[in-house]
Amino acid sequence: MQLTRFTDLGLRVVMRLAVAEEGVRPGSREIAEELSVSYTHAAKVITRLGELGVVDARRGRSGGLAITELGRTATVGWLARRLEGEAEVVECDGAIPCPLRSGCRLRSALRRAQQAFFESLDTLTIEDLTRNPTGTVLLALPRIGGADTQISATNGE
Ligand code: SF4
């Protein structure tokens, strides 16, 4: 099974925010640059992470992004399910619906596999993902702008 780029980016963002120093709130542009993704994609993901309550995004001079307690303690499976949405592994009911869909054993097997995939991610929290060696890699990312970056718009930009 493959995660969407949206979900992978969401997990990257929360991992990066989980290692931010106390009181330091990076902006979404900084996060996008540090993670080598487009600002547009990062902003969309950060908006969704805010809706889910795992990221606190504030505007203004002392604004920026921070991971919430829920974000630290949420399981990777919980977050991945919400970022992925309800889509099945295979699109059986698309523009040209599959003729086997009324009684397909493959479809039910893929649903079980999808469920098992997410359940395997339920054993890890976001904080678990930031243990070494990942924590060291995250902390070594080149910091863009630093702690004094001016915050000017939505998503803690
Ligand atoms: S064969 Fe089964 S799983 Fe594949 S598209 Fe058709 S209904 Fe879906």
Structural notes for this entry:
This protein is mostly helical. It has one domain (about 5-155): Orthogonal Bundle (Arc Repressor Mutant, subunit A), CATH 1.10.10. It is built from eight helices and two strands. The chain has helices at about 5-20, 30-35, 40-50, 70-75, 75-85, 105-120, 125-130, 135-140, and strands at about 55-60, 65. A two-stranded antiparallel sheet has the order 1-2. Helix 1 packs across helix 3 (about 40-50), helix 1 runs antiparallel to helix 5 and helix 2 (about 30-35) crosses helix 3. The two termini are about 35 Å apart. The model is unreliable at about 145-155 (pLDDT under 50). The structure holds iron/sulfur cluster (SF4).
SS summary, helix count? 8
Strand order of the largest sheet: 1-2
- How many strand units? 2
Largest sheet: 2 strands, antiparallel
Order of helices and strands: HHHEEHHHHH
Are there runs of 5+ residues with pLDDT below 50, and where? 146-154
Indicate the CATH topology: Arc Repressor Mutant, subunit A
Structural class: mainly alpha
Please name the CATH architecture: Orthogonal Bundle
In round numbers, the mean pLDDT is 90
Strand content: 5-15%
**Mind telling me the CATH superfamily name?**
Winged helix-like DNA-binding domain superfamily/Winged helix DNA-binding domain
CATH class: Mainly Alpha
Bound molecules: iron/sulfur cluster
Which of globular, elongated, flat, extended, rod-shaped describes the shape?
elongated
Total tally of structural domains: 1
Distance between the termini: 33 Å
Please bin the fraction of helical residues: 40-55%
Rounded radius of gyration (Å):
18 Å
Cofactor: [2Fe-2S] cluster
Keywords: DNA-binding
Organism: Nocardia xishanensis
InterPro entries: Tscrpt_reg_Rrf2, WH-like_DNA-bd_sf, WH_DNA-bd_sf
